[in-house]
């Protein structure tokens, strides 16, 4: 095959173009006579001639290869093919990554993409480099895997020009290593590595014209790994920091980010001392805004507002960048890396000092010198911030030292020299600070031990060429020459290894070697050598140096001199020829700084500044040369290396490191200079492709055999080009040889390797053309026959359809005619009706209108008449009222005059009378009358005082009576003790009677089973009837007795209530007496005071003859009233609110006598001198006075009461004094005694009440002593109750006192003597009020509980009444049955037994209805169980009777039975044929309570058997959940015995045991599922038997009775639920680990449809992965689907085998299916070779097997398959038709896919054949626009990959068990003999 055969009409070629670089065209005729005629895509034509076939335009690749992941998979490998493929992927598919062999080409999208999340990292983990879509994570995974597999260090070299995305790519690579190599130590070095990025970007990145975040230095980061391949440390090396940017920025550029971040945070209080402002304020950032660089200080008074260093490029801000937020992130990164705030403050001082240094004003002085004004504010700020003297820095910024021999001169510098010196100092300070920060970061990264292996990430500048290139570009391009050489050698090495491996004969591939260019730069007498030599010359200059280059380097081919310039030179680099301007080379290479300035900084007071310039940093990438002061330093001066030498050495060290590792390459491309998202500029792209070595890689590949196919793939794709007889299925290599022999004649175009066929460039395209021609011919043949068939069928169908249409159309025409005639007739009829209706409506409307008009007119006239009449009547009323008002006013005026006249006359007469009275008052007779009345009042008062003294004497006589009463009280208490003992004895006897009764009942139940003979049965039946009759009679009698007792109790209750009422009445009377006596005392005191006042007035009038009171009288009176007055004082405040104002004044309506009579009114009916009292005087020992002395007795009692009250108050005061004393009571016994003293008050009050009740009982007693005895009994009972309650109160108060003492001690401990501050805010009062509210709430709850108990008691009483009625009914029924049937009837026996049991039950209930009501339900259950026994016995007897021929009796019994059908249950009776009755021996049945009793010491043994040692293979033979049932039955027993410690211990051991087992066997699926099922069963049991109504809906009555009675285990239910969730997650994790390796082979790679291959041939997929990496799939794809289904079936069987709840099984498989969907979809989204129609068909078929599996397992209705919707829709999207008409249907179909996923699939979609059209880009844009409407309200639409870690919420629905606990038995396989079934 010659190349001419490819250039035929229709062939597509690339034509060079000046604007588009390459332009697509198509040949319009075959190539001949060296004439090429083409037509472009826009319709233009062109015709040109070529000199030879080698100059023919490059051919285009087939459409099937366009957009491939790997450029080396293209058939035609040349520049236009590479450029177009990158453009299609970037612009049409939004794919920024493309492989080019081992190189990853990364194009900067200038847009954030969602392809770097944790899901993406997980998707690339474990996959080789060519398996998934190109990605930076794939390169990182390749490096990490080779380090693990080959145990060799790795390197990732990221290069590209500024703005291409190098830093971002390196950052994502390090993020990947930090994620997959995360260390287990506490240092978290991976977080620190990621945290170093903000710091390095802040101090090393800046905005340039090409990039907003350009790295202005190179760095190489080594990530150190342990032997387990976890990150243990890191190390960073930096190269060639662009220091000149600190003092100068070009147009539209910025300084380093850190300066702008500092200025944005200048408002922070912590940074105020830095005196920063906006970026426009600084000279180094704002030079472009200055007017005159030589302005004087006078013109720069506001120089801080026009600074220089931060805005020379007129672009201080970056769109979308928040410098303040970035500054906070930088500070956080500093803190994370161990640089504290103090160190940060010093760093910021130095940075601010650099900015202010740029603002120092230099003034030119006489042309040869320069000065700085001493008042320059910036100079002082610099000195303050850097901690240096102002005078020194002012001097040495303008002067320098010159050494001449042994003399040292100080020489001033010119303005230009001084400016350069200042800027050099600023650059040097920044470089030192940069190196120090890097060293601190390395210290933080430092590994604690020697690393095992490392992966290096090199982020270095790419090849640069500008309009003016200087020293920086020269060093950068020099470094790229070295890296390109290493790259070429590595690529060639890999190609060579591949050919050797496949045993192919190959020739040496010539590739570009740039060693001559490197020699030009670094060899002896090379450019760097000559530059260093010129720098050592005293008067060396840039011009002299470039002249030396012209002379010495002209022998090098790569060096040349420009024609029109004598200051520049040209170097032919591998990428392009670059011209360098020599200006500045020497100064930048020297990097000089004045020694005096360095010494000033060394003497700084700032520690960091001092440290920067005193330490020796041998690892710094750049060093400075310092001008010496003394001659002795001249030797060291010459020994220091220049910047170029240092860079050469560090570059050599870097190359040694890279050569010792396995390199991986990332080439970053900048698509356009405008930073527009997804915009591709071919001109800029091709420049970078040439510069970064991508085209060199393509050229090396194209020089060999770039296309490589395996034999199976080649045979599968090209077997259509051979005959079937040539196919040898057993020998694919021979088959391929025959196929190739028919197509290619030149053997140099292909080579047969060991496993592959190698082809030269272009051969695959030729074979594709032959294959397409063959398929086209076959297609034409198939189309011809198919079209003939279709047209024939279409004609026959059309003819048949025409006949049918004619038949139906004629019938339709006839039907239409008939229908029209009917419509016409109907229309006429309708018209007639409508017209009549219209006329009627018009007439009615007219009549209605006229009527309405008349009505409105008549109404208006009537209203007008009414209004006139109303106005006339209103006028009359107004006239009447006005006339009446005028008349009334005249009358009132006259009356006022008359009254005024009368008043004046009466005043005159009153004044006259007043004068006469005044004259009479002055007379002596009038005074005598007044004094006479006063003497009478004094005499009466003295008489009353005498009476009061007599009453006091009588009151004192009653003290002896009180003493007698106390002795009587002691005797009563002794009697009370005897009564208590008697009561206790009675209680013991009653308990013994109850116990004997129960034993009797047990004996009776046991004897009921010994009926053996028929005669004894008949005899006992008769006796039973008689006994029942007697029992009924006795029951009736006892019922009446019980009723009488009930009535008696009610009467006693009534008497007790009456007694309580009388007692309350006595209390009220006693209170009234106290009030009356207190009022008397107050009145007495008032009268005494008034008497004294009157006597004094009388003495004044009478003089010495008047009577005077002696001191003795006064003392006597006061002594007599001493006690009463004190009582009055004490009680005045207590009763002030009770006594009214009308009861305390002199001359009140209520007199003392009336008060006495009222107070004793209730005592008048007491017969004090009755015989009964006299007879009992010896017992009561009370001297009863006569009735005439009742008043005296009452007064004595009142006096005693007053004394007791006084004593009570005194004791209360003493107690209060003791409680308020500062010294706390330490003895609790003493506190109890104090409380006992307080109880004396209660005792005294009770004495008064007892006396009143005793007297009333004696007064009302009958002649007999019954009432007295009744009274005494009640009295003793009350006294007993009183003593008990008193003791309880004493104990409670003692506890409260102790707590108060503890609280007081605590407060004194905390607050010392200032205890009062504890309650200074009233918090104790608030606490007290809160406690009162709590007590009130508790009282309300107690009342509610009492009410509920009363309602329950009422219900029980109603139940008793109902049972009584049933008893009566059953008795009647029993009587009827006894009269009707035979006494030996079994039914009669059964009925009588039922009646007896019922009557006994009722009898026991009726005796003690309240006590036995709570056990009623238990008795009913026991009767039910006995009834079941009787039924079983009856069936046995019936069977035996039937065998014996006793059917007649059975029939008769059935007839006589009240049930009328089947006989009721009977006792077991066995008969023989001879009629003999034989005893039946049967095992006595037991009733179980559904619990296991165990000893607490055996608890751990139970846990060990049921949990620790239980094996799944043994547990599967038991009842599902049997361990849970057994454990719960043990819990029930602990609840039954109410042992909270035991239940707590058991539950804790259960929880800990399950946790321990799961942690030990977490990798065993059977064990985890076993305990997941048992924990849930135990949880369900705790809910089912908790007693909550919400969980008892499906319980039986027996199960409700078995509920927990004493414990609320809701907290343990939550603990068990948490454990179940933990086990559930472990089960899911185990299942996912088993399923994960099967997902991709079974869902994506499995091909079950024969003849439909979904895999793309390997020869078209490229070879991006490392050739040394050949990882076979863990599972064969053809078997993977069966293995997956087998695993799922095994999972399902395991879950079902251990009794897992069906709802939980659904949740498990819902989670598993989601994991399958996420894994398969994520892999599909990252594999371009899977995105075509045939693969979509295969995937959908594979998924149908999973859907069928869910139907087989009956899981399809639970929504399990809904989780597969995303992958199903993705498969449907691959199969769907993709035209503009299908946009809406596709969007509706893919509702479970996100927008990013849909667009990604459409971009990845690649036809498997040329006959299938590609997806148009316009269609993708329409889909994207349509989906944006759907995605407006969906946040998750931006995600690309599904989250494989997502977990559905776990729910455990309540699943009650139908198994009865009493039926659970212990299997023999479990050694649980210590458990006893109760």
List the helices and strands and how they pair.
Blueprint lengths: L11 E6 L3 E7 L7 E6 L4 E5 L29 H14 L4 E4 L2 E5 L10 H7 L11 H15 L3 E6 L6 H15 L8 H16 E2 L7 E2 L2 E8 L5 E9 L17 H8 L18 E3 L37 H14 L4 H17 L5 E3 L3 E3 L5 H10 L3 H7 L2 E6 L2 E6 L2 H31 L7 E7 L11 H31 L13 H8 L4 H10 L5 H11 L6 E2 L7 E5 L4 E5 L3 H6 L1 E3 H8 L4 H6 L12 E3 L6 H6 L3 H17 L2 E8 L12 H11 L1 H10 L3 E4 H8 L13 H10 L8 E3 L3 E4 L3 H159 L2 H33 L2 H49 L6 H89 L8 H10 L1 H11 L19 H8 L11 H5 L1 H4 L9 H31 L7 H33 L5 H46 L11 H58 L5 H22 L1 H4 L3 H29 L2 H10 L13 E2 L5 E2 L13 E2 L5 H10 L3 H4 L6 H15 L3 H21 L4 H20 L12 H5 L8 H36 L31 H21 L4 H24 L7 H20 ...
Parallel strand pairs: 6-23, 7-17, 7-23, 21-22
Antiparallel strand pairs: 1-2, 2-3, 3-4, 5-6, 8-9, 10-11, 10-17, 13-14, 15-16, 18-19, 19-20, 24-26, 25-26, 27-28, 29-30
Helix pairs in contact: 3-4, 4-5, 5-6, 5-7, 5-11, 6-7, 8-9, 8-11, 12-13, 12-20, 12-22, 14-15, 23-24, 26-28, 26-34, 27-36, 28-30, 28-31, 28-35, 28-38, 34-35, 35-36, 37-38, 38-40, 42-45, 44-45, 44-46, 45-48, 46-48, 48-49, 48-50, 48-51, 50-52, 51-52, 53-55, 54-55
Brief overview, please?
The protein is built from 55 helices and 30 strands. The chain is an alpha+beta fold.
Name the helicity range: 55-70%
Mean pLDDT: 77
Number of strands: 30
Structural class: alpha+beta
Radius of gyration: 59 Å
Number of helices: 55
Report the principal-axis shape. Answer: extended
In the sheet with the most strands, the strands line up as 5-6-23-7-17-10-11
For the largest beta-sheet, the strand count, sense and barrel status come to: 7 strands, mixed
Give start-end ranges of low-pLDDT stretches.
Answer: 288-306, 617-639, 1104-1190, 1222-1226, 1380-1390, 1401-1414, 1446-1484, 1663-1672
